[in-house]
Amino acid sequence: MSNYNSKSKKAEEFICHEEIEETLQYAKENKGDLKTIRAILERAADCKGLTYRKAALLLECEDPEIHQEIFHLAQQIKEKFYGNRIVMFAPLYLSNYCINGCKYCPYHGQNKHISRKKLTQEQIREEVTALQDMGHKRLAIEAGEDPKMNPIEYILESIQTIYSIKHKNGAIRRVNVNIAATTVENYKKLRDAGIGTYILFQETYNKEAYEDLHPSGPKSDYAYHTEAMDRAMEAGIDDVGCGVLFGLNLYKYDFVGILMHAKHLEDAFGCGPHTISVPRVRPADDIDPDTFDNGVPDDVFKRIIAILRIAVPYTGIIMSTRESKAMRGEAVKLGVSQISGGSRTSVGGYVEEEDEDDNSAQFDVNDRRTLNQVVDWLIDLGYVPSFCTACYREGRTGDRFMSLVKTGQIANICQPNALMTLKEYLEDYASEETKAKGLKLIEERLEMIPNPKVKEIVTEHLHDLDEGKRDFRL
Ligand code: SF4
Ligand code: SF4
After folding, report:
1. Is 275:316 a contact under the CB 8 Å cutoff?
2. How far away, in angstroms, is 110 Cα from ligand 1 center?
3. Phi/psi zone of residue 367: left (φ > 0), alpha (ψ -120 to 50 degrees), beta?
4. Crossing angle between the packed helical segments 298-311 and 325-334, to the nearest 10 degrees
5. Which atom of ligand 2 is nearest to the CA of 405?
6. Which of 130, 133, 176, 440 has its CA at a distance of 20 to 30 angstroms from the CA of residue 224?
7. Nearest protein CA to atom 6 of ligand 1, as residue
8. What CA–CA distance (Å, rounded) separates 459 from 295?
9. How far is the centre of ligand 1, averaged over its atoms, from the C-alpha of 189 (Å)?
């Protein structure tokens, strides 16, 4: 008898091993039932999402025609909720000191030959200035877990520093935070510091695999880690971002796990995760690639993204530069709504060029293009790269945000914001070539704004931007 309870506050009850195993068994037994699968797809077209059981069945199905139908529906849903906008961000590594023993990460405490670095506030200023000069407005800060080297006070001071820097026309307007699971009290401090999303990857939802992969340090406590989002939400952080590191454990298990986690947050707090990230294991210093033999092939990975898009239409999907240009191109079609660009995954990497011998990166970047190259490429593909950070600054977070998304109203806000922030980027940071094609795209897309009043406001602000004014949002 399973003890599954989506509203429970206990990790092993809201992420229930038996329920996941039963779900996977159900999917295996019914994967040939194409009639049921087609009926699920038909219902899912109403954009109300999917249960984890139905999503697992779609993922298990081996029929190539069904795969195409899944891709088709995912693209339709993506188009409906996110249009052709892709939100841009960059990671900023503050410190790679860490006392945990994660077997898949080069920052693990036992790695004695990696160079350890922690940015001073002055160095943060330099990194952020470099990021602003690239055109970034939205950051995700990252730090290892080390109560002595990276206490919460250091993180809070760093956030304050980041928000305070105004270099030329630049500004970081949203700081998302990816730090270790912590206490309600510390989450309250992060909330008061004005963070955007609190991001924490579960890595794997399988308790046994989790404990094996995390043999030492505070992160080895599965329940404390898994219940972190509950504590963050109790502390008043409305937007939380989940993720698993695909390839650590069997992907089907973690796929069900992450949807179960999303259901838990929805059932227990009335609001599911703001985002889901989909990293895959990458090579890194001191990591034995043979340890991880659960690699997810590209075709399966694409289906995971597409089915997530169908299962949680209201949740942003994030993809980093771990993936190649080709995979990122596929992913933005199928469901990814936010990507990083020009990323450095080492501490201090935006100021000091990473060289071949530098072993301080958390993982090997696959897509090494500059932000301008990524922006240019997205425009060529017909997307509007967006530097928008409006919602959190307008107080549209948590369930307020979700109700706007669910009624489809958000689409009327995102597109104008995307056009205005892209224009800002083009004026201040883009190459001449990118600027020319970007301005043309803005002109075309402006005509497609359906509400005449909104169109008038955006037209006015686009002119204001020509005159040197900045930071417009709806
Ligand atoms: Fe530390 Fe995070 Fe790396 Fe684990 S994954 S070793 S907690 S930096
Ligand atoms: Fe994101 Fe809100 Fe901006 Fe849309 S308007 S891109 S949801 S911040």
Report:
1. yes
2. 11
3. beta
4. 30
5. 7
6. 176
7. 108
8. 48
9. 22
pLDDT digits (tens, 9 = 90+) for 224-250: 999 999 999 999 999 999 999 999 989
3-class SS of residue 336: coil
Q: What are the CA-CA distances from residue 213 to residues 44, 117, 203 (Å)?
A: 36, 24, 9
Ligand closest in space to the Cα of 88? 2
Total residue length of the chain:
474
- State the alpha helices, DSSP H only, in 235-370: 251-269, 298-311, 325-334
Q: Measuring CA to CA, which residue among 102, 116, 41 is closest to residue 76?
A: 41
Stretch (H or E) spanning 322: none
- Per-residue pLDDT reduced to its tens digit, 294-327: 679 999 999 999 999 999 999 999 999 999 999 9
Q: Which of 107, 117, 224, 281 for mutating ligand 1's site (highest number of atoms within 8 Å of CB)?
A: 107
d(CA 381, CA 161): 36
Q: Quick one: residue 144, left, alpha or beta (phi over 0 = left, psi -120 to 50 = alpha)?
A: beta
Classify residue 240 as left (phi > 0), alpha (psi -120 to 50) or beta.
beta
Q: Are 172 and 422 in contact (CB under 8 A)?
A: no
Q: Which ligand is nearest to the CA of 81?
A: 2
Place of tokens 């000191």: 97
**Token pair in block for residue 87:** 């939100």
Q: What is the pLDDT of residues 385-427, one digit of tens each?
A: 999 999 989 999 888 888 888 887 777 899 999 999 999 999 9
**Structure tokens that stand for 96 in this block:** 């790679």
Higher local confidence (pLDDT), 215 or 406:
215
Tokens, residue 371: 């932000």
Closest to 135 measured CA to CA, from 330, 362, 376, 331:
376
Please, is 191 exposed, middle or buried when counting C-beta atoms within 10 Å of its C-beta (0-12, 13-18, 19+)?
A: middle
Contact 433, 372 (CB under 8 A): no
